[in-house]
Amino acid sequence: MSEAVTQLTDSLLQQFKDETFVLLNTVDVESGGPTSTAISWIYAENASTFRLAIDHRSRLVNNMIHNPLITITVFGEEMVYAVNGRASVRQDPLQDVPFNMCCFDIRIEAVRNALFYGAQLSSVPQFVKIYDQRAAEKLDEQVFAAMKKA
């Protein structure tokens, strides 16, 4: 994928059927500089829209409200993708979750290969949650269910 396209590929759509993590890149409200944060409460609503939830304690909420232009870095099969988009508040606060969150839709404007020439990923990065597994699963279920209802 050398040229930008405006929708997720079938393989990327498939990847977002399971929990995955991405880097969410925003413009910091205070410094005006770039910031990048790993998030996992994200899924593909369709090939042209991501939906994600952010805890209101995070600076990301204000960053995206003040400057909706974002980039999501996705580690896919053999590739790293930069997905440029525009964030808009879907629901604030997100209903039926145990703390104050904001739900955003990201309208995808471009999907590009962000890996340097001549390279490919040998594996997709994985993560483990290091706190109470049962509590993590319960919270994840609540957040994803609330995002899908938003």
UniProtKB/TrEMBL annotation:
The protein's name: Pyridoxamine 5'-phosphate oxidase N-terminal domain-containing protein
Alphabetical list of Gene3D superfamilies matching this protein: Electron Transport, Fmn-binding Protein, Chain A (2.30.110.10)
Occurrences of domain Pyridoxamine 5'-phosphate oxidase N-terminal (ranges): 9-94
InterPro entries: Pyridox_Oxase_N, Split_barrel_FMN-bd
SUPFAM superfamilies, per the entry: FMN-binding split barrel
